[in-house]
Amino acid sequence: MGVGQRLKEANPGAQLVAAEAYPGDQLQGLQSMTSGYLPPILDLAVPDSKIVVNAASAFRAVHEILAREGIVVGPSSGAVMHAARKWSQRIASGNIVLMFADSGWKYLGSSNLEPGNLPVDEDALDDVLWW
Fold first, then answer.
1. What is the pLDDT of residues 68-77, one digit of tens each?
2. What gap in Å lies between CA 78 and CA 72, rounded to an integer?
3. Measured CA angle at 65 (ends 61, 67), to 5 deg
4. How many angstroms separate the Cα of 89 from the Cα of each of 83, 93, 129?
5. Is 62 within 8 Å of 113 (Cβ atoms)?
6. Which residues face 49 on adjacent strands?
7. Domains, the chain, ranges and CATH?
């Protein structure tokens, strides 16, 4: 919230897009707002939009970030990357800044991070651009 507010102060034209877990998905580090938990720092007036991302898309992005950049990130960062890609398809030009708020070291034992063991992505559960 603090970084987003500061970016908007520095550049009023900046758009902030939040990544949110698909309702019911167990995506560590990222929850759906419909789950009932709203962090005390959350100010819903700050984001301009949100993109709901399912766990399969987030883990697929985690694998790609590791393969392409050699950066070990967690599933919430994968969700951020996936949401950024979806947002980039909606804009004609601009700079996109992503904030990865976790590392992947604590997920290294997860079967979802093993090569060739990605969850199946169902189109019906894929990303939703809410506003």
1. 998 989 888 9
2. 10
3. 115
4. 10, 10, 12
5. yes
6. 17
7. 2-105+122-129 (3.40.50.1100)
